[in-house]
Specification:
5-stranded parallel sheet, 3-stranded mixed sheet, globular
Amino acid sequence: MNNQQLWQAILGNLEVSLSKANFNTWFKNTGIVEKGPDFIIIGVPSTFSKDWISRKYQTDILKVLKSISPEIREIKYQVGTQKPVPVVKNSISQATVQSLSASAPVYNNPAPTTQNASFPNLNPKYVFDTFVIGKHNELAHAASVAVSKNPGSQYNPLFIYGDVGLGKTHLMHAVGNKLLQDRSGAKVLYVTSEKFTNDYIQAIGSKRMDEFKKLYRTVDMLLIDDIQFIAGKEGTQEEFFHTFNELRDKGKQIIMTADRLPKDIPAIEHRLISRFEWGMVADIQAPDFETRLAILQTKVAKKGVSISDEIVYFIAENISSNIRELEGALNRLLVYQQMEHKSLTLDQARKILGTMITQKKKVTTLKKIAMSVAEFYNITVEDLIKQSRRKEYVKPRQIAMYVSRKELGSSFPTIGEFYGGRDHTTVMHGVEKIEKLMVQTDSLKQEVDLILDKLYIT
C-alpha cells in the first residue's frame, strides 16, 4: 500500500467519527509525505493545523494506523509542503477514493473572501437527483424543490433543521445548484455561520465593512449552514439581522440549516427567531430502513462497485443514526475490499464495522424486545408470535412491532417473519396504529416509555 492509499484509508475511518465541519477544516490538503520503518510524516498546511491535529486527533490516527500498519509507532508532522492529494488510479479505484470524502462538501472553487462574491462554494454532487426521498425528509425536500423553482417568493427564508448527517446541507446545495443551472450569472453564496462570523470579525478589524456588506448583501441566494452557532455572539447576530432584512426586502432567497428548531436555539435574539420562522420551517428525521437501503443501493450503483446484498442489508439494519455514518460504513468496507482485492464476506464486514454499531444495537434484539413487551403485559413471547387475534395479545404484539421498528430500524418483512411469519402489510398497519394512538393517548406513550426503560436497563 503506497502513502496515498494509506492516507485515504485513514481518512475513510476518521470521517465517520468527525463532524463535516471538523473533517473539512482540519484534514483538507493533508497527506502522508513520508513513511519510514516505524513512523509516518503527515504534511499539513499550517502550524496551527499541526498543533490542533496533533493535540486532538493523533490518538485516533494512530489507532487506525496500527490496525492497517502495525509497525507504525510514531507520527511526525511537516508544515507547508503538502499539496492536495490527487485521485489514486491504481489498486484503489477512482470511484472509491472520491467516495471517501463524499459525506463532506467538496469545494471546487476558492472560499469566498470579502473581495469576491462570485464563488458559490457549492458541492456539484449535491443535487436533487442524488437525494433519496423518504418519509423522514419529504417535507424538507418538497419545500427545497419549491424554493428552487421560485426563489425569494413562497418560502423565504427556508429553515431546515435536524440532527447531523441527515441531508440538510445536501438539500441546501441542491437549491443553489439549481439556481445556477437555471440562471446564468446568478450569485449564490454558501457559508457556515462560523465563516460568516469570522468574515465579520476580520472586516471590523481591517475596517472593510463596506466590502463585507457588498459580499453578503448583493447575492441572489444566501445559504447559511449551522446557524445555531451564532448563539451568544451579539455582534454577529446584529449584523446577520441587517443582512437578513436587506436580502429579504430585495426578494433574495435565504436558506438556513440548524440542528434544532429556531425557538430552541439558546442565547439568540427573539427578533431573529421570529424572522427564521417567517417562511417555512421543515425538519429532517433519521431515515427508516427502506430509505437507508435505497441510499446504500444508490451509492453502490453510482460508484460502479460490487458488494454483496447481504452486506448492504447488514449496513442498513445496523447503521441507523444518520446518513453520513451510513455512507462512512460503506466507504470503510469498500476500502478494505479494494485492499484485499476480493469481495468481503458478511463476517468480515461485521468485524470491520464492529466499532460503528451503536450500543443499543449490540444489546437489543427482536427477541429481547418481545420478551420485554411480554413481561410488561404479563403474557408470553409465544402469545405474541402465535396466530391469535385475541384483544389481550393484539395490542402488545403491535407495540412490540412498533418498538422493533423504532429502536432497531428493522424492515417490515423482517419483523413480520419474527412474529409468526406475518405479512409486511400487517406490520405496517400495527406500527402506524401505535404511532397514532401514542399521539392521542398519553397512557399508551407512558407504557411504551416504561417498556423502553426496562429494555435498556436489563
